């Protein structure tokens, strides 16, 4: 039997939880479907912190300017202004809801990260900012009686009826079978797609499902070519690419090559605090020059007691892998980290498909342009999560959730071998993405990647693998279309940034990639 609620939120990271709380405050019933346990998300692992204009020497205009510069000419100014100005209000609210950011003598402390002109990054428990935000948001959500949190409910596709998104299909965790749920509106908050790459800082849930679901349902996608590679993921044999926060460089950490040379001065006058795309490419250049697979992050100028207190999680994790961050050089290399592109939305989270709203990393709001400024993402989830909730409620008015089955309501029978196929497909896609659609790309590598993805798509894939390879294809197509280099997208065959390419890439099912001046469409 199908289910019915007022609003469906998919995902329980910062964007999903914030949006669910906003909706529940109206008295509406909200069902939050999430793939794993409720706390599992990119948000949970956020380390460095959240950027916000709250310190005495800071102002909104400066944060806006830093965001626009990092975005390399592709941010939408209204989106950036919304993020920065409303961000302060939502962070204060988060503090009122019990979030404990680090303080010194009762005053909030702010750290420095790359490309910020002020120390404006709030953090919690040193390097566990995301975990603290998730804790506070889940506690707040649990106070709302109309929010139903449904963990381990993997959503596979959206139900569209009469040109409107009317619900979703998901795997019921209790019945262990496919199920449909209908609502007045769906808010997609499924996060990013770092797992598309062989090396990533993202947890296993970040497979881009929401992007694929929205695309197949008919929504437009924007700026998919812009993927951010974080410069400093721990690179040890048999260890995950654990993130070594940019805040470590913000506190004075330096990068050295295998010869022990501090090399960033050869690439950018901002040294280790240059934007991430520049630091990542500089590391790749050094690794190529020295024929090695990593460079080193050197924190040894700082005392062990300071590092232990400031970065407790990183300190313990590195120690687990046999490294003392106060004494050892830490082998690092870039890894996929964040998707600037995603489902195209206006400033209220409306997508181009009626009834479908989206917020957080799954979207492209125009806030990040071609490259996200560090620590702007948690802020984005709060601001645009709340906005999407407000808009979904306001727009749906007297709309009634459909009950019963929609005209396209059929589940595909899964191939019994689909779990095995899925692992193999993902492994292949991840390798191709890393080698051919990675930090450096060119026409030949991108065309070869597309050919492989076409081949994979022609085999009998289950929904999850189909979604995975579809997002890989969208990124690759957009990267091939953009014949210039800008922000996170670097074409070795088109290394210049060109004024005539100051446009957003837009993709829709059944169409070619096209350009648009703005992300906002209404
Ligand atoms: P997420 O937090 O990723 O949540 C997505 C949710 O959707 C999850 O609950 C997931 O389970 C669910 N989901 C996914 N697919 C499905 C499906 N098919 N069905 C049901 N549910 C689904 N940003 C900062 O601003 N500051 C930082 O310090 C920072 N540090 C970071 C450190 C790391 C290691 C990583 C990986 C990212 C970091 N980021 C940071 C980026 C930031 O954490 C994310 O961009 C942000 O948290 C995204 O929030 P979100 O709510 O959009 O998505
Ligand atoms: C980090 O701590 O380096 C991650 C910050 C971010 O991705 O915004």
Describe the structure.
- The chain has 522 residues and is α/β, with parallel strands linked by helices.
- The protein has a domain at 232-335: Succinate dehydrogenase/fumarate reductase flavoprotein, catalytic domain (Flavocytochrome C3, Chain A, domain 1), CATH 3.90.700.10.
- It is built from 14 helices and 23 strands.
- The strands form 6 sheets. Strands 9-3-2-13-20 form a 5-stranded parallel beta sheet, with helices on one face.
- Helix 6 crosses helix 14 (463-481), helix 12 (418-436) runs parallel beside helix 14 (463-481) and helix 13 (443-458) runs antiparallel to helix 14.
- The model has no long low-confidence stretch (mean pLDDT 95).
- Bound molecules: flavin-adenine dinucleotide and succinic acid (SIN).
Largest sheet: 5 strands, parallel
Q: Which ligands appear in the coordinates?
A: flavin-adenine dinucleotide, succinic acid
Overall pLDDT: 95
Alpha carbon gyration radius: 22 Å
- Supply the CATH architecture of the domain at 232-335: Alpha-Beta Complex
CATH class of the domain at 232-335: Alpha Beta
Say how many strands there are. Answer: 23
**Outline:** globular
**Given the helix and strand composition, which structural class is it?**
alpha/beta
How far is the first residue's CA from the last residue's CA?
37 Å
Biggest sheet strand line-up:
9-3-2-13-20
Helix fraction by DSSP (H/I, runs of at least 4): 25-40%
In the CATH hierarchy, the third-tier topology of the domain at 232-335 is known as Flavocytochrome C3, Chain A, domain 1
User: How large is the share of residues in beta strands?
Assistant: 15-25%
The CATH superfamily of the domain at 232-335 is: Succinate dehydrogenase/fumarate reductase flavoprotein, catalytic domain
The DSSP helix count reads: 14
**Unreliable residue stretches:** none
């Amino acid at each position: 039997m199908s289910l019915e609620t007022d609003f469906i939120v998919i995902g329980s990271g910062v964007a999903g939880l914030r949006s669910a709380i906003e909706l529940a405050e109206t008295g509406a019933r909200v069902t939050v479907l999430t793939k794993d346990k409720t706390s599992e998300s990119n948000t949970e692992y956020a380390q460095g912190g959240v950027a916000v204009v709250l310190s005495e020497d800071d102002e909104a205009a400066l944060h806006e300017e830093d965001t626009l510069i990092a975005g390399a000419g592709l941010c939408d100014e209204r989106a950036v202004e919304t993020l920065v100005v409303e961000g302060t209000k939502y962070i204060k609210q988060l503090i009122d809801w019990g979030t404990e950011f680090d303080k010194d003598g009762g005053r909030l402390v702010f750290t420095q990260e790359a490309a910020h002109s002020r120390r404006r990054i709030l953090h919690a428990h040193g390097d566990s900012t995301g975990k603290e935000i998730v804790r506070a948001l889940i506690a707040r959500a649990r106070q709302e009686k109309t929010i139903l949190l449904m963990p381990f409910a993997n959503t596979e596709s959206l139900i569209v009826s009469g040109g409107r998104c009317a619900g979703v299909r998901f795997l019921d965790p209790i019945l262990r079978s496919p199920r449909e749920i209908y609502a007045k509106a769906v808010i997609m908050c499924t996060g990013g797609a770092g797992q598309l790459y062989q090396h990533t800082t993202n947890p296993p849930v970040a497979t881009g499902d929401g992007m694929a679901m929205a695309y197949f349902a008919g929504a437009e996608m924007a700026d998919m070519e812009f993927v951010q590679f974080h410069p400093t993921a721990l690179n040890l044999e048999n260890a995950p690419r654990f993130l070594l926060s940019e805040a470590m460089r913000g506190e004075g950490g330096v990068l050295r090559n295998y010869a022990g040379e501090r090399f960033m001065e050869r690439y950018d006058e901002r040294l280790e605090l240059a934007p991430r795309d520049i630091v990542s490419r500089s590391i790749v250049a050094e690794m190529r020059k020295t024929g090695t697979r990593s460079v080193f992050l050197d924190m040894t100028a700082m005392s062990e007691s300071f590092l232990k207190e400031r970065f407790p999680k990183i300190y313990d994790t590195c120690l687990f892998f046999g490294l003392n961050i106060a004494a050892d050089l830490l082998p690092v290399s870039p890894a996929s980290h964040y998707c600037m592109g995603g489902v195209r939305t206006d400033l209220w989270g409306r997508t181009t498909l009626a009834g479908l709203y989206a917020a957080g990393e799954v979207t492209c709001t125009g806030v990040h342009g071609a490259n996200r400024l560090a620590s702007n993402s948690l802020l984005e989830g709060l601001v645009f999560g709340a906005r999407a909730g407000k808009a979904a409620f306001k727009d749906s008015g007297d709309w009634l959730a459909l009950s019963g089955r929609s005209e396209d309501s059929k589940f595909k029978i899964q191939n019994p071998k689909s779990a095995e196929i899925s692992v193999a497909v993902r492994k292949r896609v991840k390798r191709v993405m890393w080698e051919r659609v990675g930090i450096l790309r060119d026409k030949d590598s991108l065309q070869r990647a597309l050919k492989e993805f076409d081949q994979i798509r022609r085999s009998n894939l289950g929904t999850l693998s189909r979604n995975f390879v579809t997002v890989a294809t969208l990124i690759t197509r957009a990267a091939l279309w953009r014949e210039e280099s800008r922000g996170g997208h670097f074409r070795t065959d088109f290394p210049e940034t060109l004024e005539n390419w100051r446009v957003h890439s837009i993709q829709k099912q059944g169409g070619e990639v096209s350009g648009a001046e703005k992300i906002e469409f209404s």
